[in-house]
Each structure stands twice: as C-alpha cells, then as structure tokens.
Design a protein that fits this description.
There is one protein chain. By secondary structure, this protein is of the alpha+beta class. It folds into 2 domains: 192 residues, Fructose-1,6-Bisphosphatase, subunit A, domain 1 (Fructose-1,6-Bisphosphatase, Chain A, domain 1, 2-Layer Sandwich), CATH 3.30.540.10; 131 residues, D-Maltodextrin-Binding Protein, domain 2 (3-Layer(aba) Sandwich). The chain is built from 8 helices and 17 strands. The strands form 4 sheets. The protein has an 8-stranded mixed beta sheet with strand order 4-3-5-6-7-8-9-10, sandwiched between helices. β8 and β9 form a beta hairpin. α1 runs antiparallel to α2, α2 packs antiparallel against α3 and α5 packs across α8. The longest helix is centred in the N-terminal third of the chain and has 22 residues. The chain is globular and about 60 Å long. The structure holds 2,5-anhydro-1,6-di-O-phosphono-D-glucitol (AHG) and manganese (II) ion (2 copies). One manganese (II) ion binds next to β5.
C-alpha cells in the first residue's frame, strides 16, 4: 500500500501542532521545498535544457560559477522572497547579504549553498543544496551582515536536498533528523527515513587524498592507521570514499555511518579551511549532531564557533562519534594538550 506514508508538509504540520507554533515556520519550509523541487527538475533536465557548463562569471570566493550554480541561486532567492517569511538571505553565490523587501513580518534569516558539489554537475554525479535558518535577532530592523553572524547552536532549522539517484530532503528542527524522498509522480516529498541515526563506529572514511602532502600530522596519523587495516593499530580494514559533494558524503554517513574530513592543511590554512562555516559546516553539523554524530574542526565544536564574516571558511571533521572523538584526541595530543 504505497499511500500510507506521511508527506513532508503533514510532518511539519504535526511538529507545529506539537510545539504549539504559529505556522510561519511551516510556511517558510514550504518555500524551501518548492525551491528544491525546481532545482531538482533543472538538475535532472541537465544537458537537455543546456544547463551544463560554466556561467562565465566568478563568485565572491573567486570560484568559477557553473550555469546551475547561478540558476539554483536565482530559484532559491525567488521562491524564498515570494513567501515573505524571511527578512534576509545570504548565499555562497552572493557577496553581500540580501534584504527581502516587503517582508515586514519576516522573522527569519536564510543562509544557503544553492548547489553544493558543482564540480560534479557536468559528469552527472550527485549534487545538493544546503540551508540554515536563523531567527532574526530582537530589535534588528536593518538587514546587515552582523545579523547573520551567529553561532551554529542558534540555528532553528537546517537541512539539505540531495539530487541523487532519487531526490531527497533531510531536515532537522532540533528534534532529530528526518529524511523524505521526492515522489516525482505526485510532486511530493514522503517520509522514508524517520529519525535517522549515525552509527557510533564505522569502517569508512572520506577525505580528498590528493591533498595528503599538505595534511597535518594528526590527520596523516589517522588515515595511515585506517589504511594499515587489520594488521595495523585499528585491527580492522577500512574503506575509502570521496564524492566531492559534501551533501552526498553527509547523506552516506547518515545512512550507514562514516567520517568525513576536509581538515585544515598547510595549504588551505591561510584561508581558514575549505568549507564555508555559515552555509555548509554549520547546517551539516546541526544535522550530524541531531543524528547522534559529532562535528568538529579537530580542535573544537563547529557549532560553538563565533563567526566573524559571512563567507568564513572552517576545517570540518564530522560523522560517527567514536571516529571524530579519536581525530580530536589526535589533534589534542599533537598540540600537546
Ligand atoms: P561547492 O560546489 O558549493 O563550491 O562545494 C564543494 C565542496 C564540497 O561539497 C566538497 O566536499 C568539496 O568542496 C570538494 O572539494 P575537492 O574539490 O577538494 O574534492
Ligand atoms: Mn558547497
Ligand atoms: Mn555551492
């Protein structure tokens, strides 16, 4: 019986009733759901719609924008401005924060990476969208960068859409993690992965090994020990994965465990790391922690970091609790703490 499932809208309404909330939160999630469905459609049409290739522009971080980076950003901006639920937005693809005009009642701020893993678009490998929702601070009337610079622990919700072999949305509102699969025939996300939990132990790690010459000793030690397998200090064989789409890696970890690393290394250290704190690391950290995992820089909890600027980068180690704790302890030992 295929129709016993709960739609994402019904799920959000149930949460809203349970919390006695006003409904504005459900409305703003609806805008994100629309945006993600539209992006899924464009990703899926791919080359047929001329969606592959470069846009011919650079973003604020000096990265070449793909056509789909720009299109996904436009869709996210448009759909979320229409609902009037947000006072402001910030995106990987926009240098400055964007005030949503006419959203006099907007109580929330939206931060997003409209298309994550965009190097994978043209080769038809999974990409995603990531979002983080903050409450507009009391008494703030003008939408400036400072209003967005809040610790990850202040997020009211976070999630991602994965445009993979099926399209999924995975969300948290601070009450566990739930995953929904898009039924393309009816155009609705259905709850397929209730209360997702990351196993504490794993035999799988993900890191871009081409950067090994830049790694710090604690990361090198961890990877060497995994690669030593059964005969090494870990006493078991490990497998390695690298998709180069953080959304796909986090999703794999939520489903079957694992550890994902984009650590500080001697080359990216001057920029603070590779991944962006506000719209990549914080929302993923919120999801991972809500699923029982951990997310750190190797030297502290990601969601406790006080941000200093919108496009700030940060080292990221996340996933199965016991592996992240081990990596943290290797960093502490190396630092002499
Ligand atoms: P984006 O496409 O939004 O710029 O993010 C790409 C990120 C992340 O998704 C992925 O894990 C990482 O960059 C890939 O890095 P490498 O190119 O070093 O593999
Ligand atoms: Mn990204
Ligand atoms: Mn991106």
């Amino acid at each position: 019986m295929p129709y016993h499932r709960i739609t994402m809208t019904h799920f959000l309404l149930q949460e809203q009733r349970r919390k006695g909330a006003s409904g504005s939160f459900t409305a703003l999630m609806t805008d994100i759901i629309f945006a993600c469905k539209m992006i899924a459609h464009e990703v899926n049409r791919g080359a047929l719609a001329g969606n592959h290739g470069l846009a011919g522009s650079e973003n604020v971080q000096g990265e070449d924008q793909k056509k789909l980076d720009v299109l996904a950003n436009d869709i996210f901006m448009h759909m979320n401005a229409l609902g009037g639920n947000y006072a402001g937005m910030a995106s990987e693809e926009l240098e400055d924060v964007h005030a949503v005009h006419g959203a006099a009642d907007g109580k929330y701020l939206l931060l997003f990476d409209p298309l994550d893993g965009s190097s994978n678009i043209d080769v038809n490998i999974s990409v995603g969208s990531i979002f983080s929702i903050l409450r507009l601070p009391e008494g703030v009337n003008t939408i400036e960068e400072a209003a967005f610079l809040r610790k990850g622990v202040e997020q009211v919700a976070a999630g991602y859409a994965l445009y993979g072999s099926s399209t999924m949305m995975v969300i948290t509102t601070g009450n566990g993690v739930n995953g929904f699969t898009l039924d393309n025939n009816v155009g609705m996300f259905m709850l397929t992965h209730p209360d997702m939990k990351i196993p504490e132990d794993t035999k799988e790690f993900a890191i871009n090994a081409s950067r090994s010459r830049f790694w710090e000793p604690p990361v090198k030690r961890y990877v060497d020990e995994c690669q030593a397998g059964k005969e090494g200090p870990r006493g078991k064989d490990f497998n390695m994965r690298w998709v180069a789409s953080m959304v796909a890696e986090v999703h794999r970890i939520l489903v079957r465990g694992g550890v994902f690393m984009y650590p500080a290394d001697s080359e990216n250290m001057k920029k603070g790391g590779k991944l962006r704190l506000m719209y990549e690391a914080n929302p993923m950290a919120f999801i991972v922690e809500q699923a029982g995992g951990l997310a750190t820089t190797g030297r502290g909890r990601i969601m406790d970091m006080a941000p200093t600027h919108l496009h700030q980068r940060v080292p990221v180690i996340l996933g199965s609790r016991n592996e992240v704790e081990r990596l943290d302890s290797y960093h502490a030992e190396f630092d002499g703490k």
